[in-house]
Amino acid sequence: MAPKRKAANPPAAAEPAPKRSTRSSVASTSVAAPPAPAPAKKAAAPRKKKQEVVELTSSDADDMIVEEPRPKVKKAPAPKKAAAATAPAAVKPAPAVKPPPAAKKDKVKPVVEKKKPAVKSASKAAAPVSVASTSASASGSNSIDQGYGSGGQGLPSTSTTPLPEVPKPVKSKPKSPRKPVSWEQGLKDWFAEYADPDDPNKIAGDGIERMFEEMDVSMDGALPFVLAYKVRAQPGTFGSYHFDDFQSHFREPKVNSNATLKAYLTAAEKALFSSASTPDYREFYKFVWTYVKEEGQKSLAGEMASALWGIVLAPKYKLAKSFVEYTTSLGANFKGVSSDVWTQLLEFVESTDENLADYNEMDAWPSVIDAFVEWKQAKAT
pTM score, two decimals? Predict the structure, then answer.
């Protein structure tokens, strides 16, 4: 390189030398171009190299071509760590959008044809209509929730599933009211329920037990005898009832069912066994003898007579209860009871005090009654 020279009289304002068309082979010593970016390091960015400045004289400047400085190139940002690169970019939250006001639900009314006079089949067929309307309202509310959940875009559809067609009621002729059954027909139907299979005009042992069981009435008391007495059962027919007797004597009280018979017998028993002795009861007591005694028989067995007195006589008279106790104690020695003893025993218990205070030895009572008085007096002492 040539040595520096000092100019004697430098020009006042030297115009810049015009650029030459051809370049000199001398390499340019002007300002060096910025170095290429250094490879990125993990911890620190690359350092910048210092630029060398060369001072030139005016004479040297004429012989040299000065290139214009190149524009600085921005360095590419160093790549960040992998963890930072994969991190999602922060996004500013979008401004909240208020949903439009909820539209009022339109009540969907099912279109149902007007029903004609109620028919059972029509009322049953109308049930699906109410179910369809309920499901339509439920589906409408679900669609509204879904629309608001996606940002309030649009309103839900109010369309519903088509309702099933309601079948038209079938016209039917009104049934004529059932004619009331006559008392006599009701009696026949009721009697036939318990009649003997071999004799439809008679209710025998099994039928009687079933009838009293369905009436919820015990057969151990006096009611079976009260029933036979009220229908005036024929002598020697103990253990059975006949249709002709029911038809003759139950017409007036209108008895033709279990309910009416139970009410009738309960009232009759209460009237017969009241505290006062009545002519009706005396007739009933005599009737039992003829009803129970077999045809042609002159007396009752002692055991049978004692059982009957315990049912039809002892509940009404306390002295008769003591007499039954006495005959039962005799056992097999109490062999039979005649019609005279059966009748006079009623007169005895009606006229004699329970404690035998008014008993008269001179009265002509059957021997079995005298023996009872001695037994009772001896028991009291």
Answer: 0.54
